[in-house]
Structure formats: structure tokens, C-alpha cells
Amino acid sequence: MCAAPLAALVVPAVTWPLGQGDALLLAQLPATLATAGASAVLAAALGCVTGFAAPARWSPALLLPLALPPAVYGAAWLVTAQQLGWGPGAGLTFVTLLPGQVALAHAGATAAFAGAAPLADAARDLGAGAAARARWLWWPLAWPVGAALALVAFAQAVGDAGASAFTSGPGGSTLAVGLEILGRGADLGAVPRWALGLGLVPLLAAALAALLRRR
Fold this sequence. Notes:
The protein is mostly helical.
């Protein structure tokens, strides 16, 4: 089901000639990957910490970014940043993407660590100290979960064109926003190619995350 819409992009992605749109999107790729990657790693770390240690009453606040429409969330961040004298750009996009990524990571970590507390209690009762529990229990549990959550958060950030449309600046400074601008304009040659690439990112991330969770 997920791959069916992507299949329609394959032929035009391969056969349509390269053009100016490809060059414009290629120029936005490094900043997009850097912003999405940095925010994903931080979000995965925060998600693991809050998923294990944060009280349950914090969850509604942590998950709130998932309930807000991306356009509303991006507009709110843009207005707030302008009042603080902070203009659109990679930094504002990073800050805007991070809460939503943390929300995803928190939800995933909470589910993944749901059965870990009894194991920690048992290890403590058997005499394992904090360092031993961290090395032999928490690290083997946390690193595959954290890596999987980082992949999911990265895929979400790379494909975001809702909130990022407000924070990335004129002309679009992220790949997804630039792709949307090209799709609405006259230069459609690059759209199938880059849309296919963006569509494959979450599929590959989900596959890698599943492999990591099996370790």
C-alpha cells in the first residue's frame, strides 16, 4: 500500500531530463540532511530519557506537537521568533522540528521501555549496582531503540513541508519545501525524481528501524 503511489513516480523519475529544478534542490540537500540529522539525534536521546524517566503526567505536554497542525505550529514558531528578533533559516527550522521529533521519540521509547522497570528492579535486588545496570541492562536496551527512533525522526524531518514552509525562509531552504514550490510552479521535471527519493526515506528508515529492534 505504501509503495503503490511511489511506483507511479519511477518512470518519470528516470526518463524526465535533468533541469534547473534538480540543481536548486541539490543545493538544498546538505542543509536539509544536517538539520534533520542533528535534530533527529537530539530528539532520539531526549525521547529515550523522557520515555524512561519522565512521569506519566508529562506525556500530554510532550505529545502535544503531534496534535497541532504543522502549518499552525510553523506559523506560531515564526511569529514567536520574529518577536524575539530571530529570522527564518536553518536554526529556526531545527528548533521548530525538534518538539515534534521528541514527541515521536517519546511515544516510541515509552512503548519500548514499558517492560524494563521490572528487569531493573530484579537486577537491583540481585545486587547489581547502578554502573552494572547501565552497562548490562540499559545500554543494550537503549541503543537499538535510540537508533531506530533517530531514523524515524530523521525521516519525518526530511519530508516535512508544513511547519518548515514557515521557518525555512523565502524560496524554501529545505528539500521538501523546495520540492513543493517546484511542484506548484512550471518546472515539474525534477518533481518525480526528488519526490521518489523523499518517499523512499521513510520506507528505508522503517526497514532499518525494524532490523535494529530485532537485535
